[in-house]
């Protein structure tokens, strides 16, 4: 299978992994508690396209803060499955990005889990959201979200 087409029509690759037996619950499929860390890692890689996770901007320390997640579990994952996660930007708000990550099984390209989240640009000193820069908006425009295929 062509790795660039696995499970998605777009997005950038943000993580690869494998389902180990200890990731599975008593029903034999990958437990939710082990899927969320992979999705979180993928979003960190997506946000890495915008520069360092924490940076100085206009004399302020700026970072990111997740404010919501919606996860759909579409197909089971079992021990031995190889995973490819792809992520991208769905839409851009004043201070937020809506992003989507799809976790797909490498062997057949089937999308197994899809997460949509909202992450805000965050002023770490003031502890509140801050508007996205024009540079952030330009980066977001180059990162279209993956779709279910």
Q: Explain this structure to me?
A:
With 149 residues, the chain is an alpha+beta fold. 16% of the residues lie in helices and 40% in strands. It has 2 helices and 7 strands; from the N terminus they run βαββββββα. Strands 1, 2, 3, 4, 5, 6 and 7 form a 7-stranded antiparallel sheet that branches. The protein is elongated and about 50 Å long. The mean pLDDT is 94.
Q: What's the count of strands? A: 7
Q: How much β-strand is present in the residues?
A: 35-45%
Distance between the termini: 14 Å
Count of discrete alpha- or pi-helical segments spanning 4 or more residues = 2
Radius of gyration: 16 Å
Low-confidence residue ranges: none
H and E string: EHEEEEEEH
- Could you say which overall geometry the principal axes of the C-alpha atoms support? elongated
Q: How is the topology of this model organized?
A:
Blueprint: E1 12-18, H1 32-47, E2 55-57, E3 60-73, E4 82-92, E5 96-105, E6 111-123, E7 128-129, H2 134-141
Antiparallel strand pairs: 1-4, 2-3, 3-6, 4-5, 5-6, 6-7
Kindly summarize this structure in a few lines:
The chain is α+β, with helices and mostly antiparallel strands and 149 residues long.
Observed structural traits:
seven-stranded antiparallel β-sheet; alpha+beta; 2 helices; 149 residues; 7 strands
């Amino acid at each position: 299978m062509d790795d660039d087409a696995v499970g998605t029509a777009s997005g950038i690759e943000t993580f690869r992994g494998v389902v180990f037996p200890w990731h599975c619950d008593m029903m034999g499929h990958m437990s939710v508690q082990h899927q969320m860390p992979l999705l979180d890692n993928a979003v960190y890689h997506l946000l890495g396209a915008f520069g360092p996770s924490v940076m100085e901007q206009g004399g302020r320390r700026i970072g990111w803060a997740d404010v919501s997640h919606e996860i759909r579990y579409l197909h089971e994952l079992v021990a031995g499955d190889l995973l490819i996660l792809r992520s991208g930007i769905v839409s851009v708000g004043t201070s937020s990005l809506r992003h989507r990550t799809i976790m797909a099984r490498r062997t057949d390209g089937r999308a197994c889990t899809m997460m949509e989240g909202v992450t805000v640009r965050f002023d770490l000193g003031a502890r509140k959201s801050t508007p996205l820069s024009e540079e952030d908006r330009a980066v977001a425009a180059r990162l279209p979200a993956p779709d279910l295929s």
